[in-house]
Amino acid sequence: MDLSTPSAVTVEIDELVTEGLDRSAAHRLSGALETELGRLITEQGLPPGLEQSSTPVLEIDDLEVKSGVRPERLGRDLASILYRKLGR
Question: How far apart are CA 49 and CA 30, in angstroms?
Answer without folding.
Answer: 26
